[in-house]
């Protein structure tokens, strides 16, 4: 095993995390499961290639019909601290110490402690973030509630496609999620369990029930190694991939001893549709700012099916994160308008039967908790079995009507490029036009831009087709005066300058490739 030296300024944190015992634990964890991780990543590539070459569409699996038809199995009940989680704080990168401490002091029921979409996984950020979690769990932050009283920590390791370049095990770079999970469990697992506050996790980007089975094996192995009772670890799977939507019952079944439910994540989910089927014109999503939200049939069907599936099996069903940022002036009309918009969409989720959802802006915590008080009874909505729901494969794959608009194109360009700037600066999120943007929204922005460049010859400013679909660099140049951040990145291509035609950016899909190559570590 090889580990890079500590990032400058984090020598003490490094020594705390990388003890002899923790390194031995990480080595055994990673070497035990490394080969299976590689196999599943190659299976993802194979499955995507099959869909592209065959023209097939996903459906509910025939060979697991017996699991879906069996009415008797249930997931184990979750501990009391997970029974009532109406509002979690989302995209909480723990390397941001100031925001993390604010979250620990907040009235939220939970915190998505995010090493994935809301975090840029530089070596510095990973060490700082994991060490901050250790400090929170061991009550080392001053004037912060005890871990048993603070919002429950829902720890979110990186997704399987991310690697930790700063650790080699048996000559291979360590899988990012096992690096994160291993350190968090070794230093925090027993203390969280003893305080009846964990260990609880979010699992990102799961694509199949076989990947859920792998996580379950990892949980069982880890509990045995750390002398924790079976079922101590609980995990919420984020259904962020369209293929996973067809295997929700199977995913719950594989994790039935360790399940904390399923979660909707509409932007990664929508981006996955483009990723899996974007080579087909029928699956080109329209302008996401105008035509893609939870009210659209394919997303509403996905959420309804998730709620029905979870509650039928005694599992929690949670909604996505509101990315809206409330204006600071609480007396102004923009504040009232933004709050009304968030309230309307989140009320739809509550009425669909979700047991909770996430917000990014801490100012939204109490208004959204009040919304739950007004429209629900008790700690959760497990009694809402949604017998009225019947979802077909066609419902899940029904693309909304609408057009590719000039506004949507410009917005996607801005989000995609500004995210790269944020990422290369070591930050996982940035703020743009009243929203927080992270890798999930950057991915759908990129995916839409690539699909539009591939399939569109015209764009729709507001109605029917007009001028030819333009070169993207023209809009990058045009946006420069309004987005100084873009002009810092855009070398050449300004007014009157020659610039190469747009070549769509493709995030590498080979196993173990980071979503963006070249981030600073």
From TrEMBL:
Cellular component terms per the entry's GO annotation:
cytoplasm
Name the Pfam families on file.
MS_C, MS_TIM-barrel
Q: Which Gene3D superfamilies does this UniProt record tie to the protein?
A: Malate synthase, domain 3, Malate synthase, domain III
* Top enzyme category: transferase
InterPro entries recorded: Malate_synth_C_sf, Malate_synth_sf, Malate_synthA, Malate_synthase_TIM, MS_C, MS_N_TIM-barrel_dom
Q: Which residues form the active site?
A: 156 (proton acceptor), 438 (proton donor)
Q: Listed GO molecular functions?
A: malate synthase activity
- For this entry, list what GO says about its biological process: glyoxylate cycle; tricarboxylic acid cycle
Q: Which residues form the Malate synthase TIM barrel domain?
A: 152-398
Region (Disordered): which ranges? 446-469
Q: Which reaction does it catalyse?
A: glyoxylate + acetyl-CoA + H2O = (S)-malate + CoA + H(+)
Q: Which UniProt keywords apply?
A: Glyoxylate bypass, Transferase, Tricarboxylic acid cycle
**For this protein, what is the EC number?**
2.3.3.9
Domain called Malate synthase C-terminal: residue spans? 405-448
What name does the UniProt record give this protein?
malate synthase
Species of origin: Scophthalmus maximus
